[in-house]
Amino acid sequence: MATANPEIELEEKTEGVTLEGGTYEIIRKRLETQAETLRLRLHKLNEARKEVFGAIESKLIATNRIATENNCSPQDMVALGPLFIFGYNVQVRLKSIELADVFSVFRYDSQDHSFHTAPLDLIAHEKFVQDFLEMYKFYKDTVFLKFAVLGPHLYMVFQVGKRLRTLRFLNGPLLAKTGIYQ
């Protein structure tokens, strides 16, 4: 049953808002206290981890742009000593795909923290190039996915169909030429 006096109704509503505001403040303070406790425990745990395992500070020392001749999206990269192989996916196929459209090799200069173009000789083995060209010729949906280094071999993983399950791997004794695994 409604109260006949509107002033009493207004007071009851105001008390409810004050109580709800007080409850909010109590919950907020509890959460802030728990967050601070968690931060302190995390900091303590991190310091203990650093004592046991050591710590290497990682920081950004430089940024560089890698320019390509075609409109493409970067997919993956792999470091082989001072050489980096970058893999891309070409967006527009106006011509047949060549090895240089999907891969590029750069030499990293640690003095000025820059990349300099290097020849594709590292991956331009006759058998590899033949397999690569055939794959892009016969599978129109081919895209480069990633590099995988397993032992002395560098594998390039390609998706050759619309589903992710249709994969093809190309490999060669590439790392032996760099002298990294000898």
In short:
By secondary structure, the protein is an alpha+beta fold. It has helices spanning 6-53, 99-102, 126-138, 174-178, and strands at residues 72-80, 83-90, 103-109, 114-118, 143-150, 153-159, 167-172. It is built from four helices and seven strands.
The multimeric state of the shown protein is single chain
- The structural class is alpha+beta
Q: Average pLDDT value? A: 80
Q: Poorly predicted ranges (pLDDT <50, ≥5 residues)?
A: 178-182
Count of DSSP-assigned helices: 4
- Rg calc: 30 Å
Portion in strands = 25-35%
From the N-terminal CA to the C-terminal CA, the straight-line distance is 91 Å
H/E series: HEEHEEHEEEH
Task: Describe this protein's structure.
The protein has about 180 residues and is an alpha+beta fold. The protein has two domains: about 1-55; about 70-180, no CATH class. It contains four helices and seven strands. A four-stranded antiparallel β-sheet has the order 1-2-3-4. A hairpin with a 7-residue loop joins β6 and β7. About 10% of the residues are buried. The model is unreliable at about 180 (pLDDT under 50).
